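diguanylate cyclase
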Amino acid sequence: MTVKKTKKTILVVDDTETNLDMILAILKEYDVIPVTSGEDALLVLKEEKIDMILLDILMPGMDGFEVCNGLKADGETKNIPVIFITAKNDEDSIEKAYELGGVDYVTKPFRPRELMARVKTHLCMQEIIDNLGYLATRDSLTGVYNRRKFFELAQSMYELNKEGVFSIMIDLDHFKNINDLYGHQSGDVVLRSITKAISDLLPEESVFGRVGGEEFAVLVVASKPDEVKNLVEIIRITVSQLIVLIGDSTTISCTISCGMAQRTEATLSLDDLLKEADIALYQAKGGGRNRSIF
Ligand code: GH3
Ligand code: MG
Ligand code: MG
Ligand code: MG
């Protein structure tokens, strides 16, 4: 999970230095990055994590509307709230600012406390939106992608890679017994520990999600099937050696079975690729569990 920075970073874009100075003095409780052109703003946005942009409209070179257009077209920056702060107060400009995705419009000369209040409100709203976005995409027990997000990201990976895409299905072995023996809460702890162990071993670019109760799916890109076979074996062995401590003295171990499949010319869809891994998983279960089958 990413560590949240407490101090927000605000990019302030204005070609007039005295305006920048005034805004900087008002926003002193934040980390503020001042720039004097739209071009510089876009450069900073490529390098820094920005939480909000205060954007002038009238500037030589790129104007504020063009900057806003540019950053809204980029997936990395499109969700950053933009507050226009400008001397232009005609209705056409105000309407255009909102149409381009601005969240607020402040006219110069602005009132310091009002500007601060607006900044605070929009930062707060953005935090709520980000939190909701996180909750909507994660499995609440394990923190990995939920089924919906897994399929969304897996579909993108599948479409981007005609070759070298592999699916892995993982299912905990005899997990019902663990619940029956130690209780559902202990089962949850085991589920969380195993998920973390798997997550730690997967390459960062892989897509990993909980797709069923004790069933997980992975989509991964690799140059050779052996890479994936080895990875899955390492995961399987690591999980089999995992000892989960419950309370002071109870220890629980649980194994996993894994099925793998590679995308070929005959693979028709992501569903098809996952189904193939599911068939292999079924064989791993039939073969005695705690094994992986390609
Ligand atoms: P197999 O090796 O054939 O997969 O056996 P299994 O017992 O793992 O499979 P089965 O499908 O019979 O049971 C799955 C169990 O997983 C039953 C269900 O209660 C448990 N389970 C599913 N989701 C959760 C969960 O979130 N927490 C806990 N504690 N148990 C869960
Ligand atoms: Mg200006
Ligand atoms: Mg199971
Ligand atoms: Mg299952």
